Amino acid sequence: MATKGKRVLIIAGEASGDLYGGNLVKAIRAVDSSVFFLGVGGLHMREAGVELLWNADEMGVVGLPGVKRLLTIMSVYRVVSTNLQQWRPDLVVLIDYPEFNLLVAGKAKKLGIPVMYYISPQIWAWRSGRIKTIRRRVDRMVVILPFEERIYREGGVEVSFVGHPLLDVIRVTDEKSLTRSRYSKDRASRLVGLLPGSRINEISKLLPVMLDTAAALAKEIPDIHFLMPLAPTIRSHQIDPYLRGRDIPLTVVENNTHEVIQVCEMMIAASGTVTLEAAILGTPLVVVYKVNPLTYWLGKRLIKVQHVALANIVAGETVAPELIQHEANPEQIAREAMAILGDSDRQAWIRQRFSEVRDSVGKPGASARTAAIAMELMDAR
Q1: What is the CATH superfamily name and number for domain 176-360?
Q2: Does the reported pTM lie above 0.70?
Q3: Residue 64 has what pLDDT?
Q4: DSSP state of 91
Q5: How many Cβ atoms are within 10 Å of 246's Cβ, its own excluded?
């Protein structure tokens, strides 16, 4: 694979990493358009110009991987390892997805290829001992949450805080009434968002519960209307079976998640990056999550943080109610949602705390700052 410019192997194993990876590739090419990218990712990275070795949609795992998924991941590792050996890139960029990416980092280190890790493994939540492996295998850790920088610096890892890349993606608009009209013809209706996740196994566990919750809320609030923005990894035909036979005032929306979050009075959302997106956009939410019983049992014993929602972790307190596992049932979710919908003072407090969360995660430009670090590492070779 002959290329004239610098060469980067970039790996993102999940949907959010693919989005950030695509933006990083664009930012690097804005500095040097001759840089060639090979890697593992999805639609955003491909559109940014990455030649994909494997599509990351096949790799996303919540909980313990099944045998088929595990075999797929092993196959991807062999492909990546072979290309590292033969192609010898000028830099390896690893985005989140630690179980896989730390293996790749070890291989790259043995070959003398510099490694930049963008978006840290959550060592502050569980398996903090991984920092020793990171110190040996990663040349620069690039973190996006403000408290992570101190953890890595104290652990002897070269680290840079660049701010959260969501701030490059999310555009807050003041024309709320204009965007609202796209989703509701009735100006008086109360819009509530449903975000059941970005993976099929999340959808299967959470969407039926959310729809039952929506039905319960519709009985209590006659003018309520629900919006369901689909993640880029989910297609409408995949959720159609769950909607069949349901008499719920619901609109499914594709490709406009951030706009939907902003126009909604509140959200009911799966735990994940979307909770921080809601915080940045100032929308109150109830966070729900379910995993298989074994994963939950292990998590209770291994995870060290008090909260599961990223918005609450950054805030340092419970701003958005969290209902996990058996608590994520229609009755409790509806009760928490009603408590927010019926209390304007609480809504104002949530928006104020979320404004503080937004301020704490930095300023726009994370992709450009990370691109500058990548160029620095390549130029130092």
Answers
A1: Glycogen Phosphorylase B; (3.40.50.2000)
A2: yes
A3: 44
A4: E
A5: 12
Strand partners, 126: none
Which residue is associated with the tokens 């939950």? 296
CB half-sphere exposure, 323, CA atoms < 13 A? 22
- Contact between residue 242 and residue 208 where contact means Cβ atoms under 8 Å apart: yes
Tell me if domain 7-163+365-379 and domain 176-360 are identical in fold: yes
Structure tokens at 350: 């949530």
Measure the CA dihedral 317/318/320/322, to 10°.
130
Q: Give me the mean pLDDT over the 343-360 stretch.
A: 97
Mean pLDDT to the nearest integer, 347-360: 97
Task: Please report which confidence band the pLDDT of residue 302 belongs to, taking 50, 70 and 90 as the band edges.
Answer: low
- The edge-to-edge listing of strands for the beta sheet with 115-118 is 51-55, 36-41, 7-12, 91-95, 115-118, 140-143, 159-161
- CA–CA separation, 209 vs 258, rounded Å? 23
CATH of 7-163+365-379, one of 3.40.50.2000, 3.90.930.12, 3.20.20.210, 3.40.50.300: 3.40.50.2000
Secondary structure class of 253 (helix, strand, coil)? strand
- Separation of alpha carbons 182 and 227, rounded Å: 11
Domain boundaries, the chain: 7-163+365-379, 176-360
The residue count of the chain comes to 381
